[in-house]
Specification:
- The chain has 146 residues and is of the alpha+beta class.
- It is 44% helix and 14% strand.
- The chain has two helices and eight strands.
- The protein has helices at residues 3-33, 91-123; strands spanning 41-42, 51-53, 60-62, 75-76, 87-89, 128-129, 135-138, 144-145.
- Strands 2-3-5 form a three-stranded antiparallel β-sheet, with no helix packed on it. The protein has a three-stranded antiparallel β-sheet with strand order 6-7-8, with no helix packed on it.
- The longest helix is centred in the C-terminal third of the chain and has 33 residues, at 91-123.
Length: 146
């Protein structure tokens, strides 16, 4: 088998094997950090009692009546410090967000592994010039054993 194909197969296999743990850990941090950058819109004082943060399903809820309330409505509310604002977390909604982000990242990684494998198959063997010593000299100039 050609060395390039072996390397391509090894890269795509290792990417596929590492895809699940990488996707789980990356999605965990994405789901955890999304509420920090979000600014939901509230339309009245009643909505300030339970402002939801998180995407696509809000999993952190804060009572923003006293801290960070907008001066006029509709207005946006920033995520407040859990030490200063009454905060609750819905673990079920967090798990839903985490699984959605994991699935999206996993699809991207597995597609990348497939593209690498297909690219290695399409390119075929490395074009070389003949050498009586048994050493293949690729056109790019690096020496590899045949």
């Amino acid at each position: 088998m050609d060395r390039r194909r072996e390397l391509t197969r090894a890269i795509s296999f290792s990417l596929a094997v590492l895809a699940i743990p990488v996707a789980l850990s990356a999605a965990f941090f994405v789901a955890l950090l999304v509420p920090l950058g979000e600014s939901p819109t509230v339309h009245n004082h009643e909505e300030l009692r339970n402002v939801g943060f998180g995407y696509p399903k809000p999993w952190v809820h804060q009572d923003a009546r006293f801290y960070g309330a907008p001066r006029s409505f509709p207005g946006s509310v920033e995520f407040g410090s859990p030490l200063e604002v009454v905060t609750s977390a819905d673990t079920g909604a967090f798990l839903v967000d985490w699984s959605i982000f994991t699935g999206a990242i996993l699809v991207v990684l597995l597609l990348a592994a497939g593209v690498i494998r297909v690219a290695g198959v399409i390119r075929g063997p490395t074009p070389t010039t003949g050498d009586p010593t048994g050493v293949a000299i690729p056109i790019c100039g690096a020496k590899l054993r045949a």
